[in-house]
Amino acid sequence: MKTKKLIFAALFAALTCVATMIIKVPTPTMGYIHPGDSIVLLSGFLLGPVYGGLAAGIGSMFSDLFGGYFSYAPPTFVIKTFTAVFASLIFRAFTKKLSEVSAGKQAAFTAISGTIGEAFMVFGYFVFEIFLMAIATGDGFSSTSLAAGVASSASGIPFNIVQGLFGVILSTILYPLLKKPLAQFTD
Q1: CA-CA distance, 166 to 154, in Å (whole number)?
Q2: N or C: which end of the chain has fewer CB within 10 A?
């Protein structure tokens, strides 16, 4: 069973990478909005926190490496891994005691869990970009460079929120379509 889960984790890592790279909507902050976060969330929902988290982190990290965002690759690995882990753990907590979950509750649980996971993504990039911008000023971690980092990083929050919401909506739609076909391979 672990071999099948490992194979699906590799597949979801590849899907995350491709979904992140193939459709890019550029933002004024030099980043881009993409559907990769929907696969990040689906990885957590369908494969669980460990395999899903690693699939999400590895796939997202590779998209940064292949796309030339080298300085983002390590934090992306951490942020996207924990995005999937948190979404998975919360989703499992919602559904653990229920033997049968209605379609409406399942959609609500998926949306709520995904939103919490994506909130971590927004927060994670906000914190990382503060330090990245502070370092880029060449002034170290002075109060001036940190203030500039906060101001610069804050400009990316709305775009990360849009990306996260897009991922939540898409994963909420796709989860019920993928759950049953993949259940025989991933449980």
Answers
A1: 19
A2: N
* Unique residue bearing structure tokens 């076909």: 181
In the predicted structure, residue 21 carries a pLDDT above the cut 90: yes
For residue 152, how many other CB atoms are within 10 A of its CB? 17
Q: What share of residues in the chain are helix, strand, coil (percent, to 5)? A: 85, 0, 15
**Residue type (1 letter), 14:** A
Give the pLDDT mean for 15-37.
90
Query: What does pTM read for this prediction?
Result: 0.93
**137-138-144 Cα angle (round to 5):** 55
Measured in whole angstroms, the distance separating CA 130 from the mean position of its chain's CA atoms is 19
* Token pair listed for 115: 């939103």
Half-sphere exposure of 18 (CA within 13 A, CB side): 6
